[in-house]
Amino acid sequence: MAIAFSGMILWWVRIGNEFEVSCNSLERIENYVNCEQEPKPTEAGKPPAYWPSSGHLVVEKLSASYSNGGEQVLHDLSFEIKSGERVGVVGRTGSGKSSLTLSLLRLIPTKGSVMYDGLATEHVNLNALRNHITIIPQQPDLLSGTLRDNLDPFGEYDDAVLNDALRSSGLYNVQAENEDERITLDTPVSSGGGNFSLGQRQIIALARAICRQSKVLILDEATAAIDHSTDTMIQASIRAELRDVTVITVAHRLKTIGDSDKIMVLDAGRLVEFDSPSKLLKKKDGFFKSLVDQSGEKEQLYLMAGVDPKEAEKHSWFS
């Protein structure tokens, strides 16, 4: 009887433990059900059929944080990006470059006004807004299937368009010469794109963006894992294939955005400079000028911006 009683105690302890674990599962389900949800699409938030007709962005007093009531990571940003402009975003680590891209897509709580082709984005359905802005993140993910499924999941384009997008993105230039290993539209893709390198995944994501033809393209250090020669070729392809597209590039290399129309410099979540590269390089004690002067490609960056390094130094002393 003593042995049976001790065995019964162990059995009750095990039952109690299993019951507690089951209650934890119920608590998790309740938390997921009651967590904050993004606003659902409404008829009033449906944009007109012609929208967006261009990539004109006007941002006024934009502030953002990663949680409601949390510490702000962006502070009262105000700027205007005209249609077709190529804007480079630079700044030191933690300056708010990636936070800016997330706020444009309303992925984090924001305050202020963002006008996209005359419509305030806070009044537009999220699915419509995100379908008309393409972003290539630092580590893009791919879907399991074939490369064709990743480039055109809804079957909207023919193979000629997809192959042209791959060629423009520079994928064919980073492949092995062995025909058996060449990547084609029928190449299988594992979950998350694990059978491709990070650089190849970034190039495939760029090809997908070329196919979509969105009016606003955001490159969040999308070429960080690609060598400089391939990066240069990709930037040339973007200028040729996406001439009427507004391109916002978060720079990993200063040479990537050296010939942009404008440079946006962020520091601690604040906009400190926003002008053409030539004007910023002539500004004495400027943030962008200090970044360029500290890099090992100073002379090349000055020449890309159309500025003589010696003349810029003379000009800075009299600014």
TrEMBL record:
Chief location: membrane
| Membrane-topology descriptor | Multi-pass membrane protein
Official protein name in the record: ABC transporter domain-containing protein
Key words, A-Z: ATP-binding, Membrane, Nucleotide-binding, Signal, Transmembrane, Transmembrane helix, Transport
Its source organism is Serendipita vermifera MAFF 305830
Look up the record and report any one GO term of the cellular component aspect: membrane
Sorted alphabetically, which PROSITE patterns does this protein's record hold?
ABC_TRANSPORTER_2 (PS50893)
Tell me the InterPro entries matching this sequence. Answer: AAA+_ATPase, ABC_transporter-like_ATP-bd, ABC_transporter_C-like, P-loop_NTPase
Annotated GO molecular function terms are: ATP binding; ATP hydrolysis activity; ATPase-coupled transmembrane transporter activity
Where is the ABC transporter domain positioned along the sequence? 57-293
- Point out the signal peptide segment: 1-18
Q: What is the lineage of its organism?
A: Eukaryota, Fungi, Dikarya, Basidiomycota, Agaricomycotina
Q: Where is the protein found, in the record's own terms?
A: Membrane
